[in-house]
Automatic annotation (TrEMBL):
Protein's recorded name: tRNA N6-adenosine threonylcarbamoyltransferase
Organism (species): Candidatus Sulfobium mesophilum
EC number from the UniProt entry: 2.3.1.234
GO CC annotations on file: cytoplasm
Coiled-coil region(s): none
Residues noted as binding Fe cation in the record, renumbered to the chain: H111, H115, D308
Keyword Acyltransferase: yes
Domain annotation Gcp-like: ranges: 23-314
Catalytic activity: L-threonylcarbamoyladenylate + adenosine(37) in tRNA = N(6)-L-threonylcarbamoyladenosine(37) in tRNA + AMP + H(+)
Subcellular localization: Cytoplasm
Pfam families: TsaD
Cofactor: how and how many bound: Binds 1 Fe(2+) ion per subunit.
Length: 340
């Protein structure tokens, strides 16, 4: 069974054809980073306009690359939230028009469920119940996935998402958007012990908080620039690498420690890591090491399936379609759409 997935939740226009909820036949992602880079973050209106231009060619390319026709498609799975409302509207309107004109069933998918189920695009895949850490630009949450479609949120960020913190720190350092990949790269050349940025562990809960870390970076940079922190020279090129490494170490310490707490609390044998920040090389290593030490199996998709893509939407849509969850043509996108 072939499902066509569509995701336009943020700044990537993506379409994918997935067979039987497992095998990727195509996964096309048209990235808009170049458009938003000069603003240091996503400009929603520009994102929507670009989605309008790209949605048809991206869907056509996904079908062509999969060697499929619309008549081969059993269902169209579209992400209807959470995300930027103008962006979501393009994908949803396009999917509805396609389904209406070709008589194809429409399935609505929560973007976060897509990230959780992205691990099923790889072999081996986890067994339910598993703990899922989703770390992206808009979300940082821990879920207990009990089955397809059954998720309990154990904790979430109370302020910034981890990816958002990367993007904001990158902007402070003048490194552009998106911040994750560039900080990931610079951090490899820096010393993570240079600056001891605060880690907000919030001991009584599985919630997260990252906004203090971004402020700590800002305060540190101001101290250097004003010459108050004489240990560091603001003109030192090594400083940016060391700030990147120290900031990244603080983010990863919190993510890994809280995942460890959740494993202990829920006594699960399988843990997954997904979302854009899961593309981070150091985080992938640290989660794997922690899981190994605890005797827990860990599943992390390849980086291209961690960042936004429509294959993960097709997987989630496939399982909803099997359960007969068909959306009406009155489907409306939602900027805020909690899961579980
Ligand atoms: O999942 P995603 O593509 O979109 C959302 O659903 O938000 O995640 C995008 C986020 C951005 O904040 C980006 O900076 C971050 O993922 N990211 C990374 C890396 N690659 C992307 N963060 C850290 N290290 C990376 N290698
Ligand atoms: Zn995402």
């Amino acid at each position: 069974m072939l499902v066509l997935g569509i995701d336009t939740s943020c700044d990537d226009t993506s379409a994918s054809v997935v067979e039987d909820g497992k095998k990727i036949l195509s996964n096309i992602v048209s990235n808009q980073s170049e458009i938003h880079a000069k603003y240091g973050g996503i400009v929603p209106e520009l994102a929507s306009r670009r989605h309008i231009e790209m949605i048809q060619p991206v869907v056509d390319e996904a079908l062509r690359a999969a060697g499929a026709q619309l008549s081969d498609i059993s269902a169209v799975a579209v992400c209807h939230g959470p995300g930027l409302i103008g962006s979501l509207l393009i994908g949803c309107s396009f999917a509805k028009a396609l389904c209406y004109s070709r008589g194809i069933p429409l399935v609505a998918v929560n973007h976060l469920e897509g990230h959780i189920l992205s691990v099923f695009l790889e072999t081996p895949s986890p067994k339910f119940p598993f703990l899922s850490l989703v770390v992206s630009g808009g979300h940082t949450s821990l879920y207990l996935a009990r089955d397809y479609g059954l998720y309990n949120e154990l904790g979430r960020t109370r302020d910034d998402a981890a990816g958002e913190a990367y993007d904001k720190v990158s902007k402070l350092l003048g490194l552009g958007y998106p911040g994750g990949p560039v900080i990931d790269k610079l951090a490899r050349q820096g010393d993570p012990r240079t600056i001891d940025f605060p880690r907000a562990y919030l001991p009584e809960t599985l919630d997260f908080s990252f906004s203090g870390m971004k402020t700590a970076v800002l305060n540190f940079m101001r101290s250097c620039a004003a010459g108050r922190d004489t240990r560091f020279d603001a003109g030192d090129v090594k400083l940016v690498e060391n700030i990147s490494a120290s900031f990244q170490a603080a983010v990863i310490d919190v993510l890994v420690r809280k995942t460890e707490w959740a494993i202990r609390k829920k006594r699960v044998g399988n843990v997954t890591l997904s979302g854009g920040v899961a593309a981070n090389s150091a985080l992938r290593e640290r989660i794997k090491k922690m899981a190994e030490e605890r005797g827990v199996e860990v599943f992390v998709p390849p980086p291209a399936l961690c960042t936004d893509n429509a294959a993960m939407i097709a997987v989630a849509g496939y399982h909803r379609f099997l359960k007969g969850e068909i959306a009406g043509l009155d489907l409306n996108p939602k900027a805020y759409l909690p899961l579980g």
